[in-house]
């Protein structure tokens, strides 16, 4: 009986896309107002799923092809070793360490030290070698590796195209003054029940996942970000997940790969689970405290859990942890010091939220800017101080990686810029992004909580276009802020002068005098 009741199989990504899309439409689509911005937002969120599936499928095909090439190289090396040994001695590399399965045009190779339900018998070296050679010829004939890369490229282009539409929608959000209340098609209790159930299943996938050590890219390929976060292992929630496989695999790389330590695996799981819970709690509290609508906060959190991206990238620490920091910075926007601490954490962990500083300083310019800047400085200074725990010898390299202190790279890139697009075009995209970041320091002139949320989401979306290591896939950086923008009411009265305290008596008197004169 336990086999029937407790047996749980993780759904295929495509299956989850269909189920979650239908449920999202049923719960959040406004059927009585078909032509509404809410329905457009729901469709844009759903349209991200095809790009994710194409990238997933492309990486899977490229991974299988790379594994096959590595297996052929290993077999050839084993045959050379066997030929050099005297007659009667056993070769050091037995071909039965490699198991090759071919099922319905899908190839899978298990390397030494891996668990497999199939075991090749001894004495079949020649037979397996011929099978591998035949599959290798088929691989060269159909070009599976290049086909996988082309599918990845189409997926990244699809993602960036949908994110361009999302960016335009966020840029226009400040002009949308009329924001009618469009509640989810379910009660608050039902939203919490479904959301809690999804959270349990997603976190169970994280706990039962097998940690994979991230690839040592080297200083010339390391992405910008805090070294500790970059060194944590990946937690793929499926056994056939390939979200960290961004470059061809060689036999040397597969042979030298080691499982991550238990401490790093536990730390990655704890950080991922706490970060997801922090995102959900922060979203609900923002809906309750700042939007005055608990149902909207619960619906926003449920939509975050329902989206295929969350299910596919649940175990990515570098995705969800900065998102949690940004959500809590918005939650504590009335306290500039605390908001600065959380934004400083996000900027110190993955570097890209640093470009939010002009926008947030502009929001606090009339009141609270010193406390906000102090919070950011204290946090970043503390993170830099923690870098000294690893020694002083390579402290400069770690600080350089933390802040991305190098010229824009044009080689060894991943994602769309490493799969076919000319990297030189990253430079004008980067310049446009910097102009947008600086422009938000002065526009809109009167910033409120609504513009703070939508403009922060817009900048995080815009960073995807010049991100050189998988830009377009880091959806968590803007997804919670985008959902808050979709569900938010009119927040024009939530400006720094009205909601932030701590001004002196003389400054308050000057403000009241100016208001009397204006009246």
TrEMBL record:
It comes from the Bacteria. The keyword Magnesium does not apply. The keyword Transmembrane helix applies. Keywords: Membrane, Transmembrane, Transmembrane helix. The chain crosses the membrane at residues 16-34, 40-58, 155-172, 192-211, 266-288, 294-310, 339-365, 372-393, 413-436, 472-491. This is Transmembrane protein. It comes from Roseimaritima multifibrata.
